[in-house]
Amino acid sequence: MTRTALVTGGTRGIGAAISKALKGAGYNVAASYAGNDEAAAKFKAQTGIAVYKWDVASFDACAAGVKKVEAEVGPVDVLVNNAGITRDTPFHKMTLDQWNAVINTNLGSLFNMSRQVIEGMRARKFGRIINISSINGQKGQFGQVNYSASKAGDIGFTKALALETARGGITVNAICPGYINTEMVQAVPKDVLEQKILPLIPVNRLGEPEEIARAVVFLAADDSAFITGSTLSVNGGQYLA
Ligand SMILES: NC(=O)c1ccc[n+]([C@@H]2O[C@H](COP(=O)([O-])OP(=O)(O)OC[C@H]3O[C@@H](n4cnc5c(N)ncnc54)[C@H](OP(=O)(O)O)[C@@H]3O)[C@@H](O)[C@H]2O)c1
To answer: Could you tell me the distance, in angstroms and rounded to a whole number, from the CA of residue 182 to the centre of ligand 1?
Structure first.
């Protein structure tokens, strides 16, 4: 049986690596994105993976988007909640818009997306929900009160939903990447990266998106059924939770 996987933010960065790895592992894959049509078209042309545009911060948009994916690709067996943003600034300068954008995109999306697929997973007695949290949700980070709060929330969401779904063949897990070589991290000033971030990573390099994708494929597998409610750190030894 070919299972269907939906990866939010699956057209760029870590999400693109996850989409490709799941396709390589034999899944039917759909990848969603927010607005970068050019990157999505390029990704689709390169991979043949179906792409869908909607805002994961909107419950109604998620409902319509998942309905379309399920009609065109298949019922979602594996949901990877990967879409995320940063709006970094020290808390005393943080605006309500910066707070709301990050909380709604990074944490609200877990409700907005998981709620659309959970009833089908329960009915079919199989499901995998994999939430991409962050090292900065585990340990906190200067300038990221909004982001760290959203990513810590992802971990709490994961644990509670894992308890509710454990008897129904559905697992819910979180992955906490450390610093990964994507546009999000390339946006960090070079001197900050070289002088402040790299020295903190024991393996002395950034992670690659494929190294997160590998963890997703592992958790998505049918025979990973005993792993639920866990938080998997993939961070080069930077933070040992
Ligand atoms: N990079 C790291 O070092 C790192 C470390 C720890 C955790 N993470 C987490 O890993 C995930 C992926 O990060 P990344 O670095 O790969 O990010 P990225 O390169 O900026 O890509 C983000 C993806 O999410 C999509 N997206 C953003 N907001 C969205 C929204 N409101 N609705 C739907 N899609 C949306 C983007 O769509 P568009 O292409 O249309 O913009 C894009 O496909 C995030 O949750 C991030 O917090 C990253």
So the answer is: 9
Give the model's confidence band at 112: pLDDT under 50 very low, under 70 low, under 90 confident, else very high: very high
Would you say residue 238 lies in a domain?
no
**Distance (Å, whole) CA 67 – CA 172:** 21
**Ligand 1 lined by 183 (C-beta under 6 Å):** yes
Asked if the structure places residue 188 within a domain, the reply is yes
Given 33, 147, 179, 239, which residue is catalytic?
Answer: 147
The CATH number of the domain holding residue 194 is 3.40.50.720
Identify the pLDDT of residue 188: 85
Whole-angstrom distance, CA of residue 190 vs CA of residue 185: 10
Using one digit for the tens of pLDDT, what is the confidence trace for 212-221?
Answer: 999 999 999 9
**CB 112 within 8 Å of CB 42:** no
Nearest to 17 by CA among 3, 31, 28: 31
Ligand 1, closest atom to CA 206? 3
Average pLDDT over residues 140-164: 98
- Is residue 106 situated within a structural domain? yes
